[in-house]
C-alpha cells in the first residue's frame, strides 16, 4: 500500500437501503459544500454516485441484470477504480453498499433510514419489480445497511439519520456540513 499525503477534505459515504434518499442527500450536500469552497482550494468536492454512474461509466460490472434492474458489480474493478480517486478527499460517495470500502478511505459514514411503509411506496413509484421491493424493504426492517456500517467502521464515524421528509433532508445536510467544518478545523 502506497502512503499518500493527508487528505485536505474528508470523504463522506452516504449509504442506506435503496429509496432512503442517498442521492437526494448527496446532491444537496455537494451543493452546500461547493458553496463553501474558494477558487484557491486545491481539492474540490465531488459527488460520486457509485451504483448508477460510476460502476456503469467505468465498466466496473459484468453486465446488466434484467431481473433486478441493476448492474452486476465487479467489486475488485470498482475498488481499483476508486482507489486513486478517493486519495485527495472531498468525495461524497453515494451507494447502498458500505462494507466494501476500506476503512482508511472513509471519514464519515451516514446511514439513512426510512419507515418501511414509506420506503415501499418510494420503490413502487420507481417501478421496481415486486421481488426487489420486498428484498429492500426486508433489508430496511432488519437494519442490514446499518449493521454492515457498524461492523465495518469505527463507531465514532457512523451516524444514523432519519430520511422521511424534505425538512429532514435539509436538517441532515446542515448537520453533515457542520461535521465537515469541524473535520477541517481538526485537520488543518
From TrEMBL:
Residues 1-20 are annotated as: Disordered. It comes from the Eukaryota. Keywords: ATP-binding, Cytoplasm, Hydrolase, Kinase, Nucleotide-binding, Nucleus, Ribosome biogenesis, rRNA processing, Transferase. SUPFAM superfamilies: P-loop containing nucleoside triphosphate hydrolases. PROSITE patterns: EF_HAND_1. Its EC number is 2.7.4.3. ATP binds at residues 19, 21-24, 126. GO terms for cellular component: cytoplasm; nucleus. Transmembrane segments: none annotated. The keyword Transferase applies. Residues 50-73 are annotated as: NMPbind. GO terms for molecular function: AMP kinase activity; ATP binding; ATP hydrolysis activity. It is an enzyme of class 2 (transferase). Residues 125-135 are annotated as: LID. Its main location: cytoplasm. The keyword Transport does not apply. GO terms for biological process: ribosomal small subunit biogenesis; rRNA processing. It is found in: Cytoplasm; Nucleus. InterPro entries: Adenyl_kinase_AK6 (IPR020618), EF_Hand_1_Ca_BS (IPR018247), P-loop_NTPase (IPR027417). Broad-specificity nucleoside monophosphate (NMP) kinase that catalyzes the reversible transfer of the terminal phosphate group between nucleoside triphosphates and monophosphates. Has also ATPase activity. Involved in the late cytoplasmic maturation steps of the 40S ribosomal particles, specifically 18S rRNA maturation. While NMP activity is not required for ribosome maturation, ATPase activity is. Associates transiently with small ribosomal subunit protein uS11. ATP hydrolysis breaks the interaction with uS11. PANTHER family: ADENYLATE KINASE ISOENZYME 6, POS9-ACTIVATING FACTOR FAP7-RELATED. Interacts with small ribosomal subunit protein uS11. Not a structural component of 43S pre-ribosomes, but transiently interacts with them by binding to uS11. This is Adenylate kinase isoenzyme 6 homolog.
Amino acid at each position: 500500500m502506497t502512503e499518500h499525503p493527508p487528505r485536505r477534505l474528508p470523504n463522506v459515504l452516504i449509504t442506506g437501503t435503496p429509496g432512503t434518499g442517498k442521492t437526494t442527500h448527496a446532491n444537496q450536500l455537494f451543493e452546500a459544500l461547493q458553496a463553501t469552497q474558494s477558487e484557491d482550494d486545491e481539492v474540490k468536492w465531488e459527488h460520486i454516485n457509485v451504483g448508477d454512474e460510476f460502476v456503469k461509466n467505468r465498466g466496473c460490472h459484468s453486465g446488466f441484470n434484467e431481473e433486478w434492474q441493476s448492474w452486476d458489480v465487479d467489486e475488485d474493478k470498482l475498488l481499483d477504480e476508486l482507489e486513486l480517486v478517493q486519495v485527495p478527499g472531498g468525495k461524497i460517495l453515494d451507494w447502498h453498499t458500505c462494507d466494501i470500502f476500506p476503512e482508511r478511505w472513509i471519514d464519515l459514514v451516514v446511514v439513512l433510514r426510512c419507515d418501511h411503509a414509506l420506503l415501499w411506496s418510494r420503490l413502487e413509484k420507481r417501478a421496481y419489480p415486486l421481488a426487489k421491493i420486498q428484498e429492500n424493504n426486508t433489508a430496511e426492517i432488519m437494519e442490514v445497511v446499518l449493521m454492515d456500517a457498524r461492523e465495518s467502521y469505527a463507531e465514532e464515524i457512523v451516524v444514523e439519520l432519519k430520511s422521511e421528509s424534505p425538512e429532514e433532508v435539509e436538517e441532515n445536510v446542515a448537520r453533515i456540513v457542520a461535521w465537515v467544518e469541524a473535520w477541517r478545523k481538526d485537520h488543518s
